[in-house]
Amino acid sequence: MIGNLKMHHMTLRPQAIQPLLLALSLTFIAGQLAAEPEGESTLAPDRPNTLTDTTASPDAQPGPVLTPEPASELELEPPPPPESDALATNPLQPKTSEAPSADELRSLEALDRALTSKEQQVSEVQQQLIAAEDSVTQQDLTERLRALKDELEEQRRQFEKFAVNIDLRPFIDEEEKPFNWQDELSKLLKPIIAELENATKESRAIGELRAQMSEVEERKTLATEATERLQTLLAQEPNAALQERLQERLANWQRIATDSSNSYAALELQLNKRLEQRQSMLEETTGYAKRFVRTRGLNLVLAIAAFALVFIGVRWLANALRRISPAAENRFSTRLTTLLLHVFSVLGGLIAMLIVFNMAGDWFMLGIILIFLIGIGWASINTLPSQIETVKLILNIGPVREGERLVFNGLPYRVESLAFTARLVNPLLDGGVQQMPVKHLVGHISRPPGEEEPWFPTESGDWVELADGRLGQVIHQSPASVMLQEPGGAEVRYPADGFIALNPRKLSQGFRIISRFGIDYRHQAIATTEVPKRMRDALDKALAKVLENAGVEKPAANAIKAINVLFAQASGSSLDYLIHLDLAGEAAPMTPIIQASIQGILIDACNTQGWGIPLTHVGVHQLQVSA
To answer: Disordered: where is this region (predicted)?
Structure first.
């Protein structure tokens, strides 16, 4: 402390207490006389007591020594030059502070009286320590003196700080304490625990009374059993010595039983009184809520308002910047600025809440917010890699980029925009716009789309044939499902990704029907020349009528694009032909009828031409089992 008198220490051994009592008393008087000159009070602002002891070490024995301050250290500094000269020689010298007010002087007087009282207490304890003769008393007085001196030193610092009105930390050498997170956490939790204890005070008091009653009741029961046992022993008329000792123990246990019974009655009375005064759970909850709103409601409202003001203000600023330069919205710098503003909108709002609670001195709510933030920070450690990937997506530098093709939930999409929300678009799907948080795209990869790459295998109105053999027209397709209408009007619904997995064969732009037909070997001579030509002529004439009768929109001649009859192979029992029939998309609904008609038309042609159709011979062999 600035201006404090130096302290000197010596060790006082217990063996020398008695011989040195007189010397110590004389030294104490001399020290008091040396510390009380009138001029010294103006030199030492804290008016330190020059008495000290060797309490710096707990193991040292008390031995106060009275030493006056050396005169050399009490000399005043030379007076400063006049103000004009000082300013001329040192332009950096600060101006003289304003004169203290009357309130400040009254405060200093109050602090001075407190210091004087504390110094008197220290002096009294020092005198008691000098007069103490046993080591136990000396140890107690030493600990008390150490605590008083710590309090005195703290009061001196307060007086000095208030008197000079400057920051004294550069002049104070404080010991650096190692950081202990448990101590810091306990300080943070202390207001919260105190609030919880206050909220459950009545319930805990009732619980403690019931626990004490249970303990006292057990003691009363055991004491009663002991009394009955001793009375039984006395009824058997033991010898005089034993009877006297048993009577003594009986009186003791009867006293214990009586005391336990009285204690139980008193506890029961207290419990009943508390239960009568206790409010219902609803009333207690309502009362606590009212007290909370009355004491902390305004602080909470102000904190929420501060959070909302910062949050909405920063978000408005981010949107304003985006509206000012919409062309630069996709730049990396714009994305980074927007990201930082969104992050600060949350952090700044929380900081504003902390400032409000700190200014209001509401340590309970302040601790709640800090614990909440610590919990979020601790939980964020496990999700840090995912959060980094999310930030990369927002900045458009991740594995998913704007304008590229992305397969999401089994369906292709174009990444139209990436920010805090992602916009995915499939132009061929009804409702093919997906708006989602960008974090859902973590783990996906996009690629540039091909120039002619379709966004879906079909469009609404297309006729398709699926791998499961079903034929139908697409009447509705969305990201959820695809609806097919079969010939005849039946509707079938497929999940969109399941529809793609069935490899739909699109018939609307034209398709080909392939059929097989075989004739007998006896027509081998004309099998590659005359037979294919006549089969094609028969199909050309008959299929046109079949399509006209089926009601195909296009004229029959235009619906049939090409008919080809090709010799396929000479199989074991027939000469086989492949019939390729190319049709326009309008004929797709008639595919089953056309396939059946091809076989009928070729059979009619064989009958007209006299061609034989081979039969499949099946041999049945019966195995005779002998008895």
So the answer is: 37-103
